[in-house]
Amino acid sequence: MRAYSMDLRVRVLKDVDAGMKTAAVAAKYSVSPAWVRRLKQRRTATGQIGPTPQKRGVTPGHIRYGDRIREAVRQAPDATLAEFRARFGLPLSRSALARALTALGLVRKKSRSGRPSRTARTSGRPGPGGRPTNPALTRTGTSSSTRRGPPPT
What predicted TM-score, i.e. pTM, was given to this entire model? Predict the structure, then answer.
């Protein structure tokens, strides 16, 4: 949302100074009465009527440390996030470093250390409409988590 123009602010304060009530000024310029009150309070407190600059958050790590992150990945493409932080002195948390790698489009080569997953299916293929092909495999009835409990006393 954009800030109201200085021209509008000056006109609103001119009408307020001329003696118009806050609600009447707000209706005349199609702004909220709260905005008119805050504008008057700000002028009284600080003498300023211009819009305040937008507050920005912390600059993301991929912008601040992008070159260092790229160099770290180039030197050690199979390092873990914790190793990147310790070895290259990157002042980011693991999650922030992971987000930075994604934002920079960098891919880390991960070496497999565990057994490969099984390639056999663990469940049957669904039949028409997504139902299992063998109805005997489908459990019917209720479980303790779906059964209604005793009525309250």
Answer: 0.41
61 contact partners, CB below 8 Å, separation of at least 6: 69, 90, 92, 96, 97, 99, 100
CA-nearest of 36, 37, 39 to 48 is: 39
Cα separation, 127 vs 81, whole angstroms: 43
pLDDT in tens, the chain (153 residues): 688 999 999 999 999 999 999 999 999 999 999 999 999 999 999 999 998 888 888 888 888 888 888 888 888 888 888 888 888 888 888 888 888 888 888 877 666 666 666 666 666 666 666 665 666 665 566 566 666 667 777
Distance CA 96, CA 57 (A): 14
Token duo for residue 30: 């199609």
Give the separation between CA 17 and CA 20, rounded to whole angstroms.
7
Task: Delimit the domains of the chain by residue range.
Answer: 6-46, 61-104
Residues 6 or more apart whose Cβ sits within 8 Å of residue 57: none
